[in-house]
Amino acid sequence: EIVLTQSPATLSLSPGERATLSCRASQSVSTYLAWYQQKPGQAPRLLIYDASNRATGIPARFSGSGSGTDFTLTISSLEPEDFAVYYCQQRSNWPRSFGPGTKVDIK
Amino acid sequence: QVRLVESGGGVVQPGRSLRLSCAASGFTFSSYAIHWVRQAPGKGLEWVAVISYDGSNKYYADSVKGRFTISRDNSKNTLFLQLNSLRADDTAVYYCARDVDVASARYYFDYWGQGTLVTVSS
User: Fold this and answer.
1) Nearest to B45 among A50, A95, A98 (CB)
2) Which positions in chain A have a beta carbon within 8 angstroms of at least one beta carbon in chain B?
3) Cβ contact, residue pair A96, B47, below 8 Å
4) Which candidate, B12, B27, B66, B94, has a CA 20 to 30 Å from the CA of A8?
5) Other CB atoms closer than 10 Å to residue B22's CB: what's the count?
6) What is the pLDDT at residue A104?
């Protein structure tokens, strides 16, 4: 079973700052990794799939990188609506799994 | 636009059953695999089950295998999840979510419903 670890657990930043979120897999998932954003009381929203491909309608300030076991989600300049919880998810192995999440909150 | 609307959640006693539904609109339902993903209160996300576009293939998380059954009615654009032998740790918001790919399951989820809360408690 692949375990995804996300760091930091909480990231406190100001609007306009750059956010860098990490997701590490316990074994290689190649590039079979996605990122989701979830706001309180809402369903998750797909941001990135296959490590670096933006989903339809996702702003260019969101970018993903990495392969193997180490992945990064970067938000180049935080907008007020970007403060949320972010989850990574792998589809490489069974069971499909999510990371525990990183909360990006306002400093 | 793509819309997924879950229903059927509620409070149920341990050991009892519940049937969830997910009504789809705004896309060709019969062309997509659909998943159930759940989220316990204040916790992270857990993939639960998937059904192929034509209903011929179904896969489950180990935590629900043998207790939950996923099915679909393509004539009614509706997905179902039958929950049997419910336990306290099944308490969660249950989301249906569309797979990103047409006619295959890539296990990325591009559209989600708003979720339906299942509470298992005596």
Assistant:
1) A98
2) 34, 36, 42-46, 49-50, 55-56, 87, 89, 91, 95-101
3) yes
4) B94
5) 26
6) 98
**Mean pLDDT in consecutive groups of 10 residues from the start of chain A, 107 residues:** 96 97 97 97 97 97 98 97 97 94 96
Location of structure tokens 């392969």: A67
Interface test with B, best of A31, A37, A46, A90 (most B CBs within 10 A): A46
In this structure, the dihedral spanned by the alpha carbons of residues A12, A14, A15 and A20, taken in order and rounded to 10 degrees, is -50
Tokens linked to A69: 């076991």
What string of pLDDT tens digits covers the 122 residues of chain B? 999 999 999 999 999 999 999 999 999 999 999 999 999 999 999 999 999 999 999 999 999 999 999 999 999 999 999 999 999 999 999 999 999 998 888 999 999 999 999 999 99
